[in-house]
């Protein structure tokens, strides 16, 4: 899942593929995007295809994304949308137990934090959030899972 065979598949096509910022973003996030897609119950082939599709979409829209207030958050939204859509098409896969129990950002934060073992700072960085937003999402998710005390 995290081996070198998956690294370095950043799309080299498109009008903006040579942009250094895009390449750095892609190389930094591609493997964790793949891990996220796998954690969402996609098989390796579907996960790889989704991530490559997302990276192609990002390179095509990179000038807009990089000038947004939160480029990483913009990219994350595209990834989540693509993984969710692929999960629906793949006969219900892509809806892991975390996303069955929780909705929205709380589910993603829980998945990254507890299934992928990312720190709150790493989770925030990957999702394009601030650490306090991750902390709040974790608390809300925990309350939803455990119910009222």
Structure description:
By secondary structure, this protein is mostly helical. The chain is built from 8 helices and no strands. The protein is globular, with a radius of gyration of 15 Å.
Question: What's the total count of β strands?
Answer: 0
What's the SSE pattern? HHHHHHHH
Label the overall shape: globular
Strand-pairing-aware structural class:
mainly alpha
Distance between the termini: 38 Å
How is the secondary structure organized here?
Elements lengths: L19 H20 L4 H17 L1 H5 L4 H19 L7 H5 L2 H12 L4 H8 L3 H16 L3
Helix pairs in contact: 1-2, 2-4, 6-8, 7-8
Structure summary:
With 149 residues, the protein is mainly α. It contains eight helices and no strands.
Which labels suit this protein?
8 helices; mainly alpha; disordered N terminus; single chain
């Amino acid at each position: 899942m995290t081996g070198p065979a998956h690294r370095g598949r950043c799309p080299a096509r498109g009008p903006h593929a040579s942009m250094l910022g895009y390449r750095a973003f892609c190389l930094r996030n591609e493997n964790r995007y793949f891990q996220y897609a796998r954690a969402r119950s996609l098989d390796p082939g579907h996960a790889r295809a989704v991530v490559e599709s997302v990276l192609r979409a990002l390179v095509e829209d990179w000038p807009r994304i990089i000038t947004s207030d939160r480029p990483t958050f913009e990219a994350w939204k595209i990834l989540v949308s693509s993984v969710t859509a692929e999960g629906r098409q793949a006969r219900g896969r892509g809806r892991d137990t975390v996303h069955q129990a929780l909705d929205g950002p709380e589910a993603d934060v829980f998945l990254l934090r507890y299934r992928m073992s990312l720190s709150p700072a790493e989770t925030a960085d990957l999702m394009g959030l601030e650490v306090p937003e991750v902390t709040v999402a974790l608390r809300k998710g925990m309350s939803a899972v455990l119910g009222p005390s």
